[in-house]
Amino acid sequence: MKRVPLYFILLITALVAGIFISFIALRSINTPTSRTSVLPGFESDPNATPRPTTKLRISPTPSTSSGPSATPSKTPSPNQILLDVPFTPQAPFAEWSNPKLSNGCEEASALMAMSWVRGADITPEKARQEIISISDYEESNYGIYLDTSAKDTVDWIFKGYYKYQNVELYYDISIEDIKNQLKKGNLVIVPANGQEMHNPYYTQPGPLRHKLVIIGYDPDSKEFITNDPGTRLGKQYRYPEQVLFNAIHDYLTGNDLPLPPKRTAMIVVKK
Fold this sequence. Notes:
Helix content: 25-40%
Radius of gyration: 42 Å
CATH superfamily of the domain at 81-269: Cysteine proteinases
Distance between the termini: 152 Å
Oligomer: single chain
CATH architecture of the domain at 81-269: Alpha-Beta Complex
CATH topology of the domain at 81-269: Cathepsin B, Chain A
Number of helices: 7
CATH class of the domain at 81-269: Alpha Beta
């Protein structure tokens, strides 16, 4: 038997091995593979949970509006009535811990009215001195200066302290009664339940017994224009006519006495 040369066997073996390796490589190329992740910047995996998008949040500008029921002074309407009345808050230097100032809305309202009558200006120093002086007069002559009713405000402050007689008191009034007095060029002071006036500048919930001066009316916006001594921002402060009228409520003279049954009233001051 003839022997096969060794180099021939090695050649055949190498040839078979090459064919086998080529076959395996070809199958690998044709078999699809699954992608389990992607590189940044490429199309994302449609089955992946999307990452939340961060958005820049812009906080709204805080509103300076007086809320749905009250607004500060604004550009005058050509049709409005507006009397030139000097203004003071009842605590000109924010001394709200002083009871003669924190309870001084009646005195401050009368001071504004009498300054209008006399054509005089009001400085903070003068206002503080006068409000305390009126309170001292009431306490000395009538035994109390707190929460003076509409009648006592007329009798004690206007006719007593100021010796001024051209002032009248009306009960059971209407919105039209107030407007008519303003049309005649008269000032109106009203007692009110401040908690029903919704003024955002009051220390909430607002004063239960309060007085303020009505100095005008805007028929276009249907607002009463007031000098409200209960806030340093009370100059020409506007209230919707129905809101202010609904809050009008005379009260008893005394120290935080309960409100009596509702009765409207207005003090009319004439020059």
